[in-house]
Amino acid sequence: MCTMKWKHTPSYFLHILLFRLNPFLFELGYFVTLSSVGFLALKSTSSNPARKIDLFFTSASAVTVSSMSTLEMEVFSTTHLVILTVLMLLGGEVFTSMLGLRLTKAKINNNQIRSRQMIAEFDRSNSDVNMKRKCIEILASLVTWYLLAVHAVGSASIVVYLSLVPSARRVLERKGIGMGIFSVFTAVSTFANCGFVPTNENMIVFKKNSGLLLILIQLVFMGNTLYPVCLRLLIWFTEKVTKRAELRYVLENSRELGYGHLMPGLESVYLGITVLGFVVVQMVVFCSLEWNNNFLGVSNYYERIVGCLFQVVNSRHAGESVFDLGVVSPAVLVLFVIMMYLPPYTSYLPINEHQVADENITKHIINTTLTSRNKVYYKWENIVFSQLTYLSIFVILICITERQNMKTDPINFNVLNIVVEVISAYGNVGFSVGYSCEKQMHYSGGGAAVCKDAWYGFAGRWSDEGKFVLIVVMFIGRLKKFNMRGGRAWILA
């Protein structure tokens, strides 16, 4: 009788939500709920006539750290910027992974309680579980302090730079943006690899402020592609200082803790080499093709190199820009599309036959110990499509929703521009070629009443149906880690 009553209490439903719900559905519900709350907050505090679809698009873009935009950033008040800052923080990968660690610890505690109630004779097993619980608790604390420290130091560094460099400070004064909100907003956005900046032009207005760009480059790396490397270095340093056995266990048994961002030492090294290798390749291609183009807008060689470096670093999921991508060569756009498509932890990792054998043994153990619920999940995984298939479907859908624009405005609404926008949304990057009135076939020169250039993404000119499809793309892209093996059942032979 007591059990029946407990099953109808809020605690029971919270237990189901935290411990029984499929991880994919849990995260999907988290991002959709957060986007909806953000939309309501933006709508209730908005005094401008922004359409509901654009406000929800902006909220979803902030939560999924995509920075796709259909509105100019300077239409948002300071209150709106604070709301967007909170959304980007709560939607960032490091923050959500920290929540995941806390949830894992709670699950272990819950399983321990159940084990004590049912079984009391596995002391050694309980000892291993206790060690794992302590390691996860310490790891969660380190990630939390890492998150707080990077945001604090990053925001302070931006404030100091703006205080010392009058040219950068004057940009904010001219636009009426407070130094404090700009610094915190930009630090949170950059570390989360969202790409939103309070200025309409993103970072284009700061293309000559190389010091600011270098600060942001570090935040980009620390919050995404090099986060596993930074985290392992932090754990190694902390272990050397404190000599704690739990930290040594974390370093030696990183995979057993189930935290995907914590990699073994060798894999971390290869990841760092791969990330830097991608940067070098992009720098060579970008500088070779665009070095003498006027759109770079800087004559100083140092400023030009830093600007190019900032642009290519942001092609891997960050999305901030110092150049107008609408005028770069198609070859560079294709290269950026490839970089945006690649997962953040893509790395070249040569393995030997012994490692392959170990992986096969591990897979066999996993397959033989799956619960019935997880078996259903893995069977479902075998029938889903690959990521490229989904991207192709989304591009086709956008071409259908925007077919009228593709007929009347074929230069702006070409397939390559649509592909860039879709891949950027799926990769949660935020790069966009924008929209140019001068490229219209029937552009009348001074016809401001007919067409007016605006500082927002290409999607801002799409139909409501096209914007809705892109919102779906952003959500699926944010959850693409659950579909990394999709399409395995398809044999292309």
From TrEMBL:
Taxonomy, superkingdom: Eukaryota
Membrane topology: Multi-pass membrane protein
Family: Belongs to the TrkH potassium transport family. HKT (TC 2.A.38.3) subfamily.
Gene Ontology MF: a single term: monoatomic cation transmembrane transporter activity
Places the protein is found: Membrane
Any single Gene Ontology cellular-component annotation: plasma membrane
Entry keywords, A to Z: Ion transport, Membrane, Transmembrane, Transmembrane helix, Transport
Gene Ontology biological process terms, A to Z: metal ion transport
Protein name as annotated: Sodium transporter
Regions crossing the membrane: 12-41, 81-101, 138-164, 176-199, 211-237, 269-289, 322-342, 383-400
Pfam families noted in UniProt: TrkH
